[in-house]
Amino acid sequence: MAYTQVSAEDAAELLDAAGMAGPVGISPLAGGWANSNFLLQLADGSRVVLKVWNERTPEEVEELIEHTCWIAEHGFPTPVPLQLSGGERMLVKDGLAWMLLPFVDARWLASDPDSLHALGEVQARLHAVPACDGLSTSFSMGFELWGTLFERAEAAGAWSPFLRMLEQEAVRLKADIPDDLPSGIIHGDLFPDNVLGTSGNVLVVLDFEEVCVGALALDLMMAFVGFGWQDGEPVTERWQALLSGYESVRPLTDIERAALADLHRYATLSIAAWRYWQF
Fold first, then answer.
1. Alpha carbon distance 110, 98 (integer Å)
2. What is the pLDDT of residues 16-37, one digit of tens each?
3. d(CA 178, CA 142)
């Protein structure tokens, strides 16, 4: 998706800072709700991705780069921005952060059992990465966002039936979901447009924009909402494949298993709340 137009001159400036060949082609890439993504074809035949961050400040992007590099340094398959001439990994143009990323020539991961088993394994590996300094402990699509929606509705006198339902659900879920679930680094948005791979193989996980320290089992249920539903219904076979892959690396605890139904509901409503807020 592209919100910011990128000229050949813009692309050449960034490529020159990275010591790379000049651009011979620029085309928008699908995906990305909070940024502009372009595929750059270079004069030497290589390809890279140019990303412009439209809804994050440069300071927020710098922090996100640090977190992504930390995760990658621990062996997790996620691309990090290319280093530029001064050692930095982004440039600031017109108040926005611009960066270059490696291009991975692959499709979004499918939802067949082998692919979901592989996704479960990879997600469990992420959950084994130790938390680094500076990570938020608030899941940005969850109760914090819901509270913002409630406050705006109250101030405007514009409560919709969806928000009234969400308000009731928030009370119940806060009471029912344990506070002491195992926690660690979670992706928070492990949906198909954030995972590239082939059948039965995850190549890279993209866009750690919602990364935080949170309940590991919630992250698993978010992945199930993203990959495990079809025609508005959860598919049991897909859940079993995702869970078996995950537990081949990290078995769930009893308290996590007992909370799965509530976490699934929380994850589903969190996506609905985010879409309500965006659209």
1. 30
2. 999 999 999 999 997 666 789 9
3. 15
- Between the alpha carbon of residue 136 and those of residues 77, 128, 278, the distances in Å are 22, 17, 21
Q: What is the DSSP string of 208-258?
A: -TT-EEEEHHHHHHHHHHHHSEETTEE-HHHHHHHHHHHHTTSPPPHHHHH
The neighbour count for residue 229, using CB atoms within 10 Å, is: 15
Please write the tens of the pLDDT for every residue from 214-268.
999 999 999 999 999 999 999 999 999 999 999 999 999 999 999 999 999 999 9
Can you identify the CATH homologous superfamily of domain 8-103?
Answer: Phosphorylase Kinase; domain 1 (3.30.200.20)
Contact 243, 232 (CB under 8 A): no
Classify domain 113-278 at the CATH topology level: Aminoglycoside 3'-phosphotransferase; Chain: A, domain 2 (3.90.1200)
Percent helix, strand, coil in the chain (nearest 5)? 45, 20, 35
